[in-house]
Amino acid sequence: MAFEKSHSCIKWRLCCRSVLPFLLFLSRLSHIVSGQIRYTIPEELKKGSLIGNVAQDLGLDVQRLRSGRARIVTRQSIQYTELKTDKGILVVNERIDREQLCGDVTPCSFSFEVILENPMELHPVKIMIQDQNDNPPQVLYPVQTGGSLVAEMVPRSADVGYLVTKVVAVDVDSGQNAWLSYKLQKATDRALFEVGLQNGEIRTIRQVTDKDAVKQRLTVIVEDNGQPSRSATVIVNVAVADSFPEVLSEFIDFTHDKEYNDNLTFYLVLALAVVSFLFITCLVVIISVKIYRWRQSRILYHSNLPVIPYYPPRYSDTLGTGTLQHVYNYEVCRTTDSRKSDCKFGRAGSQNVLIMDPSSTGTMQRIQNEKSILDAPDSPLEVGFAFFL
Asked: N or C: which end of the chain has fewer CB within 10 A?
């Protein structure tokens, strides 16, 4: 018994030794921790937006924040707030998205501590995030696909109030921003279907008849209750028939109608553009050719270009010396206009300025004699030359 008592005393002492430091820590912590402050801000505030005056709300001096090296300690991976110790205010440091921070949890908040040193102080701060209507509704059913088509079938024997389908949508916002309403925006026959305002159920409002079209297309708009309101649009295809083979062809037309119309419009516009381009190009080319030919004809007709003389081969340089091999020089002159021509017949070579050796008197005398023959009317040389031309 004595051994058991001594053993229990040892346990008590060990327990006291382990608990005593924790109690001392709690007593010190009670002196360190001050009152908690709380702020409520809307989400999506810009960086640098004011949250609150920490120094004023905690009853601290700005000088105390500086000397105590005040700082924020948070358990979040992102520091959403920043403490301006020079002004004693708390501002937004990062964009706060309520849906990313809290998801579906409401209310949404996060906490951190403002710590000061010398002496040590700990001031808890809690930030409440108000939801903003920054997300439109998302339609879950019917699934909107680009390639395939989902259509609901309604038998022709359906009575009034027949449930065709239900539009299912959600909004990731919270509160009244997530309240959804459903409205029928367009329909092939508005007198045949209606949409529940709160539940999105599509029902018939009259008896289906044989005159009703097989293809029915409804456009339903889903709106939330936020300010300003956001909306989403869903298209519901309905086939009014008693059996699937009856609507098979119409069902295929549902898929290809829009694609066919879009392709046809595109090709028509493309063909019109190509034809217009070719027509304008041909018109410009024809006009350009006509103008060019007209200008060329006018230039040739009214040409005043200088006459270019033609010198026969072996024509002796008049400035040279020596005996001339050909006594006469014939010049044939033509204008650039093909319709006009001018022929200048020969003149005596002696009429040109020639520098000749004085010793060649015999040559000069022969030239003078030939000149007198050429000057005579109807000389044989002149007639023969004219005939040659």
From this structure: N
